Amino acid sequence: MTGTPAVRRVQSDSPWEETMGFARAVEVGDRVLVSGTMPLVKGVLQGEGDPYLQAKAAFANAFAALEPLGLGAADVVRTRMYITHARDVDAAGRAHKELFDDIRPATSLVVVSGFVDSRVLVEVEVEAVRPVARPDGRHAEEPSGDTP
Predict the structure, then answer these.
(1) Structure confidence by residue, pLDDT tens digits, 27-49
(2) Closest CA relative to residue 121, chosen from 35, 34, 58, 43
(3) Among 127, 108, 100, 142, residue whose Cα is nearest residue 31
(4) Where does 14-118 show beta strands of DSSP type E?
């Protein structure tokens, strides 16, 4: 029987984390979940009025939450993008493609009625998985060199 995996949490400078009692990212086992992340840097909205720039900034914040855990964009297996206007699908999608075209995570894009800050047009979530090492020291996605 195995024990419960350790849980690690990453906090950011978001005042909402303290007010609402949540972590920016939570790692349990090989999986890391990054909370809804807005395009704010030190409380200042990035790309006001521009959903493309907001998506890029929000994903940059999500990647920053992965860094202390030794992960990055290449480890992302799932994204969720929330936008406030259907007209912004192409702009948010373009930002996503630039960041993830080679990675191809599972993704969802959802139109919502709004965010706590009405200037925010895009919020994102990401899920990442830590590559699992096999007994031979290679990562699961690396060939073993054995022939079938």
Answers:
(1) 999 999 999 999 999 889 999 99
(2) 58
(3) 127
(4) 25-28, 31-37, 40-41, 44-45, 76-83, 106-111
Alpha carbon 99 to its chain's center: 11
pLDDT digits (tens, 9 = 90+) for 55-97: 999 999 999 999 999 999 999 999 999 999 999 999 999 999 9
Measured distance CA(134)–CA(140) in Å, rounded: 6
Q: Which residues contact 12 (CB under 8 A, 6 or more apart)?
A: 24, 61, 64, 65
Q: 85 is written with which tokens?
A: 């206007």
The predicted model scores a pTM of 0.84
Dist CA 78 CA 14 (whole Å)? 22
The CA-based dihedral angle spanning residues 118, 120, 125, 126, taken in that order and rounded to the nearest 10 degrees: -170
For residue 122, what is the enclosing H or E element? strand 122-129
